[in-house]
Amino acid sequence: MTSAAIRDPARDHLLTPQNSAFIVIDYQPIQVSSIRSMDQKELVFNIVHTAKAAVTYKLPIVHSTVNVATGRNKPPIQPLMDVLAAYPTYDRTSINSWEDVEFKKAVEATGRKKLIMTALWTEACLTFPALDALNEGYEVYAVADAVGGTSVAAHEAALRRMEQTGVKLISKTQLYCELQRDWNRTETVPGFMDVFESWDGFNPEKSFKG
């Protein structure tokens, strides 16, 4: 029962808290309510717990919204804001967040080359910045069960397009396991176990309110 010495966390080929950043884009009421690729409540549960992973493992977090300042859209859903309230949001008008100057500077400022990306919708606000980031030398990991599209076909086609280009698909539980890696890292074990929170302890009903 002897664990190997911890590999260099900054250079590890797997995701670590020291080599990755979390990107979360457009989990706003209108986007959530338009999801048809999975159950909307499950989607909210999954993105909230993915965000909790980022906080638990102290990843740099870049949170972007679209059209809040213009008044055309509402702020992010409350369950996500309950987790990310301490982090700034980068509002924009571009569909592709990579084409927003402040957002891209925030990503660059993390100093991380492994980007864990989540966004609504899969076919647009996730695919476009993911492909642009790949083109600029980043590694992109899309959390497939924490993102959604306007139809099953749209979501799955977008995942295939990204994967064919080099995006790595992961799940929220895989993300937790990859960041935790060893139960001897006891500081983050309580946060890890939160991924298995019961539906009975989670109330997504406020998710779709502005």
Question: Please, could you describe this protein's structure?
Answer:
It contains 8 helices and 6 strands. It is of the alpha/beta class. The protein has a single domain (20-183), classed as Rossmann fold, CATH 3.40.50. Helix 2 packs parallel to helix 7 and helix 5 (122-135) runs parallel beside helix 6 (152-165). It is globular and about 55 Å long. The model has no long low-confidence stretch (mean pLDDT 94).
Total strand segments: 6
By CATH, the architecture is named 3-Layer(aba) Sandwich
Shape: globular
Assembly form of the protein? single chain
Order of helices and strands: EHHEHEHEHEHEHH
Tags for this entry?
210 residues; alpha/beta; Rossmann fold; 8 helices; 6 strands; globular
Task: Set out the fold topology.
Elements: E1 20-25, H1 29-33, H2 40-56, E2 61-66, H3 78-84, E3 89-92, H4 101-109, E4 114-119, H5 122-135, E5 139-143, H6 152-165, E6 168-170, H7 172-180, H8 189-193
Parallel strand pairs: 1-2, 1-4, 2-3, 4-5, 5-6
Helix pairs in contact: 2-3, 2-7, 5-6
